[in-house]
Amino acid sequence: MGTLLLGESAFPFVSSGSLDRIGLMANQQEVRRTVYRYRGHVQGVGFRVNAIQQARGLQVVGFVRNEPDGDVLMDVQGPRKEVEELAKRVQSSMSLKINEVLIDQRDPLPDREGFKIRY
C-alpha cells in the first residue's frame, strides 16, 4: 500500500455497467480494482455524492462510503484508465478537502454492479 500526498444506496451508476460488461473489455484493457482512502475534511462536504457524479460516463463498479474514523473509502473496479480517470476527477473536484490519499491495489471481485454509496 502506498501513500500519495494529494492535497448500498439510492445513487446507481449511470451506465448500467457490470463486471460482465467490463469483463468484455478485459481483452482491450486490464481490469483493475483500487481502494482509495481519502483523509482530511472529507465527511459532511458532499464527497460521496460528488464521487458518484464524477463516475458518470465511466465504466466502473464499486462503492464509496464514510468510515468511522472520518476518512472516506472508495473501492472502484474497471478498466485501468477508467479507474484512474475517476480518481483524477475526484481529486480535482475535492482537492481543497483532501489532505492525503492512501492507495491499495486489490484483486478484482466478480459479480459487482453499479457504483454506489454504501452506508
TrEMBL record:
InterPro entries: Acylphosphatase (IPR020456), Acylphosphatase-like_dom (IPR001792), Acylphosphatase-like_dom_sf (IPR036046), Acylphosphatase_CS (IPR017968). It is an enzyme of class 3 (hydrolase). Keywords: Hydrolase. It catalyses: an acyl phosphate + H2O = a carboxylate + phosphate + H(+). Residues 33-119 form the Acylphosphatase-like domain. Gene3D superfamilies: 3.30.70.100. Pfam families: Acylphosphatase. It comes from the Bacteria. The active site is at R48, N66. This is acylphosphatase. It comes from Neorhodopirellula lusitana. The lineage of its organism: Bacteria, Pseudomonadati, Planctomycetota, Planctomycetia, Pirellulales.
